[in-house]
Each structure stands twice: as C-alpha cells, then as structure tokens.
Amino acid sequence: MSQVIKLDSGVIRSDLPMADGRTIRYYDSAPHTRTASDTRPVEDQPGIGELRLDPLLNEWVVMAAHRQGRVFLPPKELCPLCPTRSDLLSEIPDSSYEVVVFDNRSPSLRAPEGDWALPDILGTDTDAGTAAGKCEVICFTDNHGGSFADLSERQVRTLMEAWRDRVRELSTHSYIRHIAPFENRGEEVGVTLFHPHGQIYAYSYIPARVEKMLEVAKAHHEETGRVLFDDVVARELRDGDRIIARNEHWVAFVPYAARYPFEIHVAPLSPVADLASLSAEQADAFPAISIEVMKRLDGVFGIAMAYIATWHQAPVREGREYLRLHWQIASVRRAPGKLKYLAGSESAMGAFIMDLKPEQSAGQLRDVQL
Amino acid sequence: MSQVIKLDSGVIRSDLPMADGRTIRYYDSAPHTRTASDTRPVEDQPGIGELRLDPLLNEWVVMAAHRQGRVFLPPKELCPLCPTRSDLLSEIPDSSYEVVVFDNRSPSLRAPEGDWALPDILGTDTDAGTAAGKCEVICFTDNHGGSFADLSERQVRTLMEAWRDRVRELSTHSYIRHIAPFENRGEEVGVTLFHPHGQIYAYSYIPARVEKMLEVAKAHHEETGRVLFDDVVARELRDGDRIIARNEHWVAFVPYAARYPFEIHVAPLSPVADLASLSAEQADAFPAISIEVMKRLDGVFGIAMAYIATWHQAPVREGREYLRLHWQIASVRRAPGKLKYLAGSESAMGAFIMDLKPEQSAGQLRDVQL
C-alpha cells in the first residue's frame, strides 16, 4: 500500500516500495491512486564508496568504483526511466506518471550505516571516509522524447513541488550538509540517458565550489553588511543589458562575468536561502520564466542546447544567511558545430576564457522568436 | 638577421621577426642557421581582451570576444604549425624545425601597453581590467602526424630546454604572476589543431586553482613546517602501489585522490619551485620517463589517449617556498567509447566523482607492454 502526503499547490506524493528496498515517490498534480508493484527480481545493492582527500586542494573526491557498469545511452525501448508499458520492467512500475523520484540504482553517495563523521583534514595523514550522502533521480515527465522546454506550466509546477519536497526531506538527515538538484542535458555533457530527468545530489560535505562561494559571501557580509548575491541581482537589474526574461517574482540574466557561452542565472526577486523557503507565489511564478528561458536557449541555434542546469542554494545547516537560492544554467555550445571545452586553462588552472561577451549572448537570447 | 642565444644541453635559440611584428624562436639541438623570412601580408593584431571579476567566487574571467573566428581543425595541407614547404605560408617560415615558440595569433592574454595593474576586488563594484599576460604556442616537432610519445629523447630534451627558457624569460615581465605550460591532446578536450604542440599561458593574476593550492600549502607549512607536495611524494613512495614509472631523478604516479581516470603526476625527486630551477641532471632525466608515461597512456586501450598535461609550478614572485614543480596529466577516457565528463557534480559543485580506483588504473598503466 502506498503512503500518501499532501504538498502545496494540490500536489500529492505517493510512496511505494521498490523490489530491491528502494522507495519510489510519485508526485501528482491531483489525487491519483498509485498501486503498481515492482515485480523485478531483487538485485544486490552496490556497496558504499570511499571519500579520499585531495591534499593539494583540501577537497574530497568520491571513489565510486562500482559504477563503471552503469547503463549507457540505451535505445528508447529499453529506457529505464519510461513507465512500464510492456514486458520491459523499468524503474517505474506504473504505466504513466507525472514526476517521480527514487534513489539512483548506482549511487555515488548513499546513506551510511550507524554513526557517521567526516574524517579530520590532516594533509596526507587524512583518513579515507565512507561516501555518505544521497543520489536521487527525478524524472520530469513520462514522455521519453520531450525536454524541459516542452513541459507545461502545470508540469513544471509539480516538478518544483517535488524539488522542494526533496530538499525539505533530505535536509532532515544529520549526515547531509548540502543539496544540489541539477539536470545534465545532451551527450556533449555526458548524459547517459536521454529521457528528460535530473538528479539530486545530497552531499555529506560542503562541495568545493560552494565552500568558496560561502567564504567569499561571508567576507563580503562582514565588510559591507550586505548579502553578495543581492548585490549581484541589483547590478544586473541596474545594468539591464544582460537580462533576458523577467516576471513579477523572478529575473533571468546572463551574468556579468559568465564562464560559459549562453550561461543564464535565474533568481527570485525576493531572496531566499533554498527551494524549501520559496513562497507559494514564487513557486507559482517559476514555470513561466523557466520554460521561456529553455525555449530561448534552444532557439539560439535552432538545435537542442546541451547544458548543465543546477540549483545553487545555501547549505543545510551553515552559512544560511550568506548564500541565496538561484538556478545556474551553463550551456557549452558557442556556435553550431563548436563547443566550449574545459581545457588546460579552465580545468588545470581554473582560469576561464570566454569567447562571447555576455551582452552579446544576452542579445542573441532576447532576439529568439518564441 | 636572427639573434642567437646559447642555452643548456647545447640547445641554440634563434629569434627572427614575423611579418606582423611577432617573434618566432627556433630551438635547435645543434647550431643551425635560421634565416627564412616570413613573407605573408601583414595582418592587424587583435585587440586586448577584458578581465571581469566573477563576484560570487572572486575569480577573474577573461573576455576574449575576438577569438571566435580562430582556425578550427584544418586539414593537414593547411596546418599552420607545419613548416613552410609549399605555397602555403604557415606560421613557421623555415622548411624544417625542431622546436619553435611564438605568440598565439589569437591570444586570450597579451602584453599590456604602458603601466598596468589588476583592479582592486570590491564585489560588484570591481572595475573591469585589461587581459594582460602572454599566450605562446610551442610546437614539439615539425612532424604533423606525430605525438609526444613518438618524440625521441633528444627532442624532448630540446623541448624541455625551450620550456625552461620561456619560464625564465616570461618571469622577467612585471605583469606576469603565474606561468602554466600545458598540452591539450585529442578532439575530446577541444583541440583545434592536431599538429603536436602545447601552449604557454602566462597570467597577470594567480589562477583560481593555483590560489587555492597556495592557500592550502601555506596553511600546511605554518602548521607542520613541511612543504605539502613533499609529503604527497613521500606518501606515494611509501605506498608504492600507485607508482607507474621511476628513474634516478623523477617518479610518476596516479595520485591517491585522482579526479580523472588515468590521471598521472610526474614529479622530480629533489623538489624545485619551477622549470627554470631544475638542475641539468634533472632536465636530462625527464625525456625517458615522460616518453614512457605517454606510451603507457596510449597503451591502456591501444588508442591515442585524450589528455590535458600541465606543468604546475610556484608563481613567479610569491609563495615560491610553498609550491613545487610537477607535471599533471589528466586523461578523460575511462574505457574505450566512454569519456569522463565534468557534469553537474564536477562542474557546478566542484565535487569530483571517480569511477576507477587509482590503484586499479595504476595497475593497468603498469601492465602496458612497451
């Protein structure tokens, strides 16, 4: 039997057990009885990975050596993210769904057993840790051939409610320190499954880029009394020439110092720390602007744009007064047939070189006829 | 007429002017009179780019918007890095060469005019700067179809002398703060010219990854009195199971917390700050181990491995007591037909997930029959 929870905006969550002990969560925009059971044979759960410290940068690297064999670009009829409509038993037992969330079958991070703590950082004497955390898969639609830009506003609203629910629930685990919902789209960024979906990584440590953002924002706050990201949004609103879409609650812009061609940040006009903290009005206003942004991205060259779209938010229990929720979309195509690669300067030195002025890419994005 | 300079190991450098005012430097393992003149029509030099601060991370991003039109994977007969042997006038006027170095024709960074200073960092009030620095191209051989692994020991020794000469000379410019010679190899990492060559980026700011390494190494030194990278090499020598090659002066290993499949670090056993500080004996012992490492990399799957190989060294004028010279090779292929991508977790969060244990890839590299 399924456990049913009522969320905002009339969204209903129904939890059902999967054959191997995982849980599948259906998010429906209206009451819908979910009962289909997972009849696949039980599989052994993969072991937990290792956390090793890169001492040169004091950054944790996850060793997930059990993932090599994971599914790689299967044809449509073998897609594990489609609903189960034939003999092929996919990850989703029901024959249709709106949005579903379940643990990744080959997770890089997973729930630890018993007490868990991150090892102390002691240079090359640092112990290895276990790769605690959670890796969830979130399917945006049961339509295999669709994309984010093809979703209806109602579908994005349900997706938003699922994201908010996941952040709320994952935040209750004491071993989770930071949560990042993201979507990789396109073979160019290494997508292994075409079905429209995202992932939610819940880390047991503060990821390096968030740690740096936190450090910079904290220093800015101590110096000026202001929240850095609020200054960033204020500058974009003042300059205006990098804004590509706007409504009552959200603004979308190419940032002043973009690192990727057609990079877009989408931020609420009234700042909040994370997805769970959005007001109902803010959540309701997100579908229109997010669909517009994605349609503009695909419109620039008239081809599906490869991108990484990530929710940046404050960590679960620290620095919540310094960091703000926003959605960063990094696209890697700089022209038809030309990609932006992270080569020597970017990847070895962390020094980004941009071939396209942000004002120019903002203009191209604005010029797209919707 | 060329200007001739004698370097170590019998290498001779001959400088000649190029048509557009740049200088070409020939590095020869024995005296060789270089006189061929560049008869191409004079072209306008591109303008200098802009440095913009990404305020969320306090990192400079180079806006080099004039580079979009650069040459992209030309066929062999139009290769600008081949010597000039026919009607096609390439970047190298002579009909043969050993190693040559010249300024990139579409540089991301270039020499500033007059006094130059990096703007003060003031959050979103930070001024834009001009993209001062140098971007040089270094051709490893005049053999278009070769690769690093195909070079003779004598050729690598000449290349090493050219690298050392460039570091010495670029270090004399007051606007240069950090120098990174690197090689991108393979279309998979965005290579635009197949001819075996590398690049030398000389930055007017400390690149983000070096800044972090410096910060970590400095804190480690203050706490322990030791240099962090020396601890790293000591641990690798002690553990032993990640070492893949070694000689009297150098050791090559897959690092304990590798971020890339088949990542290899090559370090001198007697530590130095930068390429210019290597002893003659160390420089002489580099060709054998570097060629072995590259042959092992190509041998793992029997296909040319795509990689980014970068010299990490101490900055020009700061932190020289904390950072050490070493060569990092990051390969992106994890299996035949499978690449490692920097997707959501890596690129948006800076949190690396590895599919292959370092001890396993070290074993595969050691097992390659040379």
From TrEMBL, chains A, B:
<keyword id="KW-0548">Nucleotidyltransferase</keyword>
<dbReference type="InterPro" id="IPR005850">
    <property type="entry name" value="GalP_Utransf_C"/>
</dbReference>
<keyword id="KW-0119">Carbohydrate metabolism</keyword>
<dbReference type="InterPro" id="IPR036265">
    <property type="entry name" value="HIT-like_sf"/>
</dbReference>
<keyword id="KW-0299">Galactose metabolism</keyword>
<dbReference type="GO" id="GO:0005737">
    <property type="term" value="C:cytoplasm"/>
</dbReference>
<dbReference type="GO" id="GO:0008108">
    <property type="term" value="F:UDP-glucose:hexose-1-phosphate uridylyltransferase activity"/>
</dbReference>
<dbReference type="Pfam" id="PF01087">
    <property type="entry name" value="GalP_UDP_transf"/>
</dbReference>
<dbReference type="GO" id="GO:0033499">
    <property type="term" value="P:galactose catabolic process via UDP-galactose, Leloir pathway"/>
</dbReference>
<protein>
    <recommendedName>
        <fullName>UDP-glucose--hexose-1-phosphate uridylyltransferase</fullName>
        <ecNumber>2.7.7.12</ecNumber>
    </recommendedName>
</protein>
<dbReference type="Pfam" id="PF02744">
    <property type="entry name" value="GalP_UDP_tr_C"/>
</dbReference>
<dbReference type="InterPro" id="IPR001937">
    <property type="entry name" value="GalP_UDPtransf1"/>
</dbReference>
<dbReference type="GO" id="GO:0008270">
    <property type="term" value="F:zinc ion binding"/>
</dbReference>
<feature type="domain" description="Galactose-1-phosphate uridyl transferase N-terminal">
    <location>
        <begin position="50"/>
        <end position="207"/>
    </location>
</feature>
<feature type="domain" description="Galactose-1-phosphate uridyl transferase C-terminal">
    <location>
        <begin position="219"/>
        <end position="368"/>
    </location>
</feature>
<dbReference type="InterPro" id="IPR019779">
    <property type="entry name" value="GalP_UDPtransf1_His-AS"/>
</dbReference>
<keyword id="KW-0862">Zinc</keyword>
<keyword id="KW-0808">Transferase</keyword>
<dbReference type="InterPro" id="IPR005849">
    <property type="entry name" value="GalP_Utransf_N"/>
</dbReference>
<comment type="similarity">
    <text>Belongs to the galactose-1-phosphate uridylyltransferase type 1 family.</text>
</comment>
<keyword id="KW-0479">Metal-binding</keyword>
<comment type="pathway">
    <text>Carbohydrate metabolism; galactose metabolism.</text>
</comment>
